[in-house]
Design brief:
The protein is an alpha+beta fold. About 15% of the residues lie in helices and about 15% in strands.
Length: about 140
């Protein structure tokens, strides 16, 4: 049995609209959009604001202020260096004392550094930034 014509027409319209967002775009225009962080489908998920510290990122839980790999601008990023979608991250940042490779992988107000308590290893762990202290597994906003 064939689907009704209305259903077929509606499906074709949806496909045409979806493809027309970049109809006539050449490769350089798509690359330019990518460099600016404006890629079809992810524009709403990207926090447009720049950040200078993790305190700015409090509105996006599980994010840290880090360089965006797309444009090099400091933005609130998830632990996997992606942007939060609907104010949430798919990945969870590492807690204090957990192994890491990059600052962005650590909880807010923490950074990734060599483990000072075990200098024999090259392992890096998440630690509170110097101006913050550890309190109940997080880094507090109070100065040491």
């Amino acid at each position: 049995m064939r689907p009704p014509i209305r259903t077929s027409v509606a499906a074709v319209c949806v496909i045409v609209v979806a493809l027309s967002s970049c109809f006539g775009c050449d490769a350089s225009e798509i690359a330019s959009r990518s460099k600016r962080g404006v890629v079809p489908g992810n524009a709403a998920s990207r926090p447009k604001d720049m950040c200078r510290s993790d305190t700015f990122c409090k509105q996006w839980p599980k994010t840290s202020c880090a360089k965006d790999p797309v444009d090099g601008i400091q933005r609130c990023l998830c632990a996997d260096q992606s942007h939060p979608i609907n104010k949430d991250c798919i990945t969870t940042p590492q807690g204090l004392g957990m192994q890491c490779e990059l600052d962005v992988q650590c909880i807010q107000l923490a950074y990734c550094a060599l483990n000072a308590s075990d200098p024999a290893t090259e392992m890096k762990i998440c630690q509170c930034r110097d101006e913050f202290k550890e309190e109940d597994g997080t880094c507090s906003g109070q100065l040491n």
